[in-house]
Structures are given as C-alpha cells and as structure tokens.
Predict the structure.
Amino acid sequence: MMTNSNEFKSSWTALLAATAGMSSGLGLNAYINNIFGPYLLDAFGWSKADFALNGAISIITVLWIPVIGRMADLFGVRNVALLGILFYPISFVLMSWMTGDVRVLYAIHFLQVIFCASTTATVYCRVVAERFSRRRGLALAICAAGPAITGAVASPLLTTHIDAYGWRSGLHTMAAFTALFGILALLFLPTRKNPRAGAPAYSARKDYRAIFVNPAFRIIALSAFLCSLTHALATSQVKIMLADHGVSGAQAGYMVSVFAIGVILGRIIAGIALDQWPTHIVSAIGMGLPCIGSYILATDATQIAILGMAIILIGLSFGAEADILAYVTACYFPMHIYSSVMGLLTTAVGLSIGLGSGLLSYMLSLTDSFTGFLLLGGTLVLLGAINLLRLGSLQSQPAH
C-alpha cells in the first residue's frame, strides 16, 4: 500500500493543478463580493437589499451543477474545466464596464455560474480524491484552501489598490490573476484516469438510482442545505454587516481577511481530523460552528475581539464544509460517480444560498437589520449539524 509521503510524491502535480484551478475559479466570488460590495454600493447608489439579491442567482446551481458533475464523470476534468478557466477572467473585465444598472451585475453573475461552475470543487476535487486515500482529507483540504488563501491575501491588498486606483482597476487585476492561475492549472492537470475500471457501464439511470437510495446521500444533502443558509452572509455581506456594528471600512476589510484565514484553518483542521477521527463527529462539529457565530452577530456587540471571534467561527465552518463534503462523497460513494454526487450536494448548498439570499434581501427590505436572519440561520445550522451524527450508523466505501 502506498505510504502517506509516497502519495504526495507521486501525485503532487495533480494536487498543484487542482489547487491552482480552485484558487482562480468561481469559489473566489465569496471574497470578491465582500471586497467590492461596499465600493459598488457607493459608486452606483444600490441598496443593501439590491446587492444581497445578487446572491440569489446561486439558485441556478440547482439545475446546472449536477450537469457539470456528470460531465466531469463522463468526459474528464480537463475538458470540462477549460470553458470556465477561459470565461472567469473575461467576466471581471465585463464587470469593470458596468455603469450603474444592477441588472448588469446580475447578468454577469448568471454567466459566471453557467460558464465557471466547472472551476469548482465538484470538478477539481475529483482529481485529488481519485489519487489519494490515506491522506485524502489533508490533500482535499490543501486543494479547497486555495480560494481562501487567495482571499486572505487579496482582501487587504485589493482594498488598498482600489482605494488608490478605483474599483475598475481592481477588477482588471483580478482578471489578470485568474487568467494566470487558470493557465497554470491547465498545464499541470494530469491525463484522465479511468475511475470506471471494473465499474458498470455508463448508465445515468443506474448511477442516480444508486445515489438517491443511499441513506448517506439523504443525510448529507439535508445537512448541507440546513448548514449553508448563513452562507448568504458569508459570500457577500461581511463588510456591510459589520458596518452595522460600528466597524470602520478599514477594520471591516481586515475582518474579511480574518474570515478567509478562518476558512483556511477550517479546511486544514477538518482535513487532518477526517484522516484521524470518525467522519460523522468531525462533520457535525465542523459544519455546526456557524450557529455560534450567527448568534453572536445577532447581538449588539461592538467589541472587535468578539466580532472577530464570530467571523472566524463562520469562516472555520465555511472552510470545513468544503473539505467535509468532498471527503464524505469519496467515503460513502464509489469513485466512478464522485462528481455526480458532488454536483448534487453542491446543488443543495447552492439552493440554500440562493434561498437564503432571497430571504435575507426580503428581511432587509422590511427591517434593514440582519438580526432576524442570523437567529433563524443559526438555528437551522444547529439542526443540520445534529443530523450529520446519523452518519455514524452507516458503512463507508472501502479505500480506493
């Protein structure tokens, strides 16, 4: 059996390619929206409710991400990722041309979801999962940490750059960065490995039947939905929400970095923990942390330390969730349907974020306050985490 070190020695190029791809893919939107949100609101006079509604476009993933996942299973990661790698930089150039109609932002985000969903964990994590077994959790964590590391570094640097040169120049910088790292991913992506050796012939009906009758899928999908509702805040509203607690723009910019650092730590800690301890325990703890952060942010707290703790708890879980979903997919399902399952789980997350964004926009239009949404979201996250404990009674797949 391959040792831990041999896995990394033999598969480091695959891990590098997947990490570079994730670092320059659609997952960056969570950080980009937080960074550019206040500048766009100030430049165009959009309301917080208008900007929050942008996140509702993620509901498109309900139909689209499963298609992307299925395509990755059938045609390979490189072929599927190529279109997203090409369009994502172009989308930032298009955003830099906006003149004030918020519907243009919605349209660009729509195109990002359609063309760039192929640059997400549903596609890239497959490359890692099929080449690592003993240290799969850590390898997936490294891959999934790419966007968070980029966000942690980019937030203060981009904020400073935008303050000096304007938000349009900031978008041009993002276009150049994502193009460069996208090319790096293409250069190092390995040739397609055939995960269906010894597996049944291609049959969408049989594959999806196997997925839906698996009790692990129902448990994981429900919890992914419940635990992702508060992501509507994490993906675009951090700086805006902190302003309601009296945090300055500069401090809020650093808080986005705190959030990103929490995401990085969450992914690494979850990855190591998943390789060492029971999957259901690690999953429940990792995905349940936002309930504490949400309850803290629902108070009138103004102390930076307390607010920072709430943000880092949400960040820890935001990071852990990506690694947990990628890991449990490989743990409870055969590899030849890995991306198909990941696509469906990502659908659950996207549906939750989309509905959460719509609900947040509605609640903000009524009260102009985040409190009610934070209380509701925190409670649903707690229920989702408890549900994950049921995985302890199920049999996992043998190591691939």
